[in-house]
Specification:
The protein is built from 8 helices and 15 strands. It is α/β, with parallel strands linked by helices and 406 residues long. The strands form 4 sheets. A 6-stranded mixed beta sheet has the order 1-5-4-6-7-9, with helices on both faces.
Length: 406
């Protein structure tokens, strides 16, 4: 299968993510509940072992010199200096302009764990891997924006890893069928796998698992799911869901189906009460849909799971989380509810994507635009996949954790 275009550099990360000095910060293609805008299966996916079956941990006894070192973790419940344990207070700006400060409350005793893998944050011009001994502040900034708010729902585990640099991604015309035949990606994935096995051996204790990723992080989690979950009923039985956000076409299904392409057993999520399933989308502005033909010709299409459709059955996004653009907001992050819509769409060439548009309700006084600044640097909303959908992703995971426990 030919590889797809490189993920875009996060040049607008500081615009999209509120950054508080010394504290919290806010840091393609794919979409909705099924391909080509369909709603997907309504069959509950909690039948593979699930919550009431005894769980024998396949990673018991795993040890790691790398991940025994606290310096190789960004977030972990027992970690001193946990970057996810920060003040994430934000300001909600309602359609009438009313500003409300929203304190953040982490869960006191969450029922599940979340394991997050961050996107490409090393923009080096040479192929290779980002070394452990070179701090990258974007690791903290992006983790705090994309993952830290899930601490209201789960215990967070976030490893540092020797990610492949941006230049390691092959160009569109390179003859590379498998990303992981390239040394930088094999190295990066080996770290992710080692970190996950360490988490499972030392901390999981049979708890439900939510996987969170974006871009390169989603690529590694897709491989992890293929190798460690897809043919393992016990591991699938621990999976609440996998948010494989911004997979840049690497999460695929046959047309009209929810399983059978990238995964043989793990379906796309078709409802907020389904567990053991995957969510993936690559977002584009409705005003600028993808203009290229999908280079993959294997009888599959890009997956599209629209989180707002799963949460409440409509196309209005619950709330976006952005860096501050509204005058008078004093927190690092502004929350913009009821402003944007999302729907799975398909181009005439058959390219499936999540189409995001501004659709302010009647009487909306907010003069905000979070789409145009992203498009100034790229042809998609890839770098803002989480920004627009975070309110719905949080609501979805909350519902799925609740469904898993029933």
């Amino acid at each position: 299968m030919p590889l797809l275009r490189r993920p875009r550099r996060l040049l607008v990360v500081l615009l999209l993510a509120g950054v508080a000095a010394g504290a919290a910060a806010c840091g393609g293609d794919g979409e909705g509940a099924a391909p080509a805008g369909t709603t997907g299966s309504t069959t509950t996916t909690t039948t593979v072992g699930a919550a009431d079956a005894p769980f024998e941990n396949p990673y018991a006894g795993h040890t790691s010199d790398v991940y025994a070192d606290d310096a190789h973790w960004l977030c972990r419940p027992d970690l001193a200096g946990d970057v996810c344990d920060q003040d994430l207070t934000a300001t909600e700006v309602a359609p009438d302009g009313t500003r409300t400060v929203m304190p953040f409350e982490p869960a006191a005793d969450p029922a599940a764990d979340c394991f997050y893998v961050y996107p490409t944050l090393d923009y080096s011009a040479e192929p290779g891997n980002h070394p452990f001994d070179e701090p990258n502040p974007l690791e903290t900034i992006t983790t705090q924006f994309q993952a830290a708010r899930f601490a209201s729902l789960c215990d967070l585990y976030v490893p540092r890893y020797r990610q492949a640099t941006l230049a390691s991604y092959p160009d569109e015309d390179d003859e590379v069928d498998d990303l992981y035949t390239l040394d930088p990606f094999a190295t990066a994935y080996a770290d992710v796998l080692d970190a996950f096995q360490t988490y499972m051996a030392d901390s999981n204790d049979g708890r439900p698992i939510v996987l969170l990723g974006h871009s390169q992080g989603s690529h590694h989690l897709i491989r992890l799911l293929q190798q460690e979950f897809d043919d393992s009923p016990p591991m699938r039985g621990r999976l609440v869901s996998a948010l494989l956000i911004g997979p840049t076409g690497r999460l695929r299904v046959p047309p009209g189906e929810t399983v059978g392409g990238t995964f043989q057993e793990i379906p796309l999520c078709g409802g907020s009460d389904e567990t053991g399933c995957a969510v993936g989308f690559d977002s584009y502005a409705a005003s600028r849909p993808p203009d290229f033909v999908d280079p993959v010709d294997d009888g599959t299409v890009r997956a599209c799971v629209n989180p707002t459709q799963l949460v409440d059955g409509d196309d209005r996004l619950e709330a976006g989380y952005f860096g501050v653009s509204v005058p008078g907001v004093e927190t690092a992050t502004e929350i913009i509810p009821d402003r944007y819509t999302a729907e799975c769409a398909e181009t005439p060439d058959g390219q499936v994507y999540l189409s995001i548009a501004a659709d302010p309700p009647p009487g909306d006084t907010r003069t905000v635009d979070h789409v145009s600044p992203v498009l100034e640097d790229g042809d998609s909303l890839h770098v803002a996949d989480y920004n627009f959908t975070l309110g719905d992703l949080l609501a979805l995971v909350e519902a799925q954790i609740d469904a898993f426990g029933r």
